[in-house]
Amino acid sequence: MASVIVTFNIMPEGVEINLQELEKEVKEKIIDFAGPDFKEDSDIKIEIVDVAFGLKALDIKAIFDESRGGTEELENNITEIEGVKSVEVTDVRRIIG
Fold this sequence. Notes:
Strand content: 35-45%
Largest sheet: 4 strands, antiparallel
Number of strands: 4
Mean pLDDT: 94
Strand order of the largest sheet: 2-3-1-4
Radius of gyration: 13 Å
Order of helices and strands: EHEEHE
Oligomer: single chain
CATH class: Alpha Beta
Helix content: 10-25%
Low-confidence stretches: none
């Protein structure tokens, strides 16, 4: 079965949110969702990107096995983290090989 690379944009509630701490919590949720075959060193890339007026967001690319199905459960779990305003899947691509 193929893998998919999913890009998430995670907006914090405000500029006062500690993005390094938020990044750690989000990464834990992604690892739990992905399952035991997830490789932390190569299956995830997290960047802090500027949005506007000092606000920054997390831009996350993660590789999942296609058998995991949709990411709605993961999106809901991330939304429950304190300090997260919104989670948006901005891209999904299938990786074959």
